[in-house]
Amino acid sequence: xxxxxxxxxxxxxxxxxxxxxxxxxxxxxxxxxxxxxxxxxxxxxxxxxxxxxxxxxxxxxxxxxxxxxxxxxxxxxxxxxxxxxxxxxxxxxxxxxxxxxxxxxxxxxxxxxxxxxxxxxxxxxxxxxxxxxxxxxxxxxxxxxxxxxxxxxxxxxxxxxxxxxxxxxxxxxxxxxxxxxxxxxxxxxxxxxxxxxxxxxxxxxxxxxxxxxxxxxxxxxxxxxxxxxxxxxxxxxxxxxxxxxxxxxxxxxxxxxxxxxxxxxxxxxxxxxxxxxxxxxxxxxxx
Length: 287
What we know:
The protein is α/β, with parallel strands linked by helices. The chain has nine helices and nine strands. The protein is 40% helix and 19% strand.
């Protein structure tokens, strides 16, 4: 039976991800207390189910501490359990809570007479939740949903579900350093040292997938050399990542604006590794 456990920071899109899995045919349970996970798995096995998705988060704060051990135990029993950890930058989470006008799960009163001035701020709740979930994040594949639309998140979840039967999926992601390094990156490469098409006014309107930019960058010796270095590094260490029982490896390549150099490099890397590996491709700023 395939089990996907969705967890992460409140406001990062867990409900969207769970709905996407339900649409993909998974039996879904939201806000399951961690201590009931084994009981749910046993019940679904008896019923002959082949796929289950469960969402857990800070709403089950009292029993979250046991979840990492339960995950490891289920894996040792031979069950195919994958953990998706959704996260986002604090400023993105604050904006989402402001838009929805919902309160954070950790912001509620712990006693009836607690005054408002003793309640934690939203930022304090988010920081506390990150600390609480850090042990679970270490066992999971992280997805940074900062600035990500619901439709794009659903598409990413669909891609991950389709790739789950492969030993390891490589996710190549381009990004702009000026907007921050992706929180879900396992490996980060900086290509800002390369010639920048942005400063050529005839190339500025295009991106790294367009032929004029491709022709410009492919003609640069530095570009070819750095591309080969990144490719060789990933190839050298890929067996080690596979032996580490990872399901996903996110390789992020960044430039200044996330439009030209990083996009080109990610496209070329994806093209190379797609001949032998399961590959997913993301362009954060273009998306």
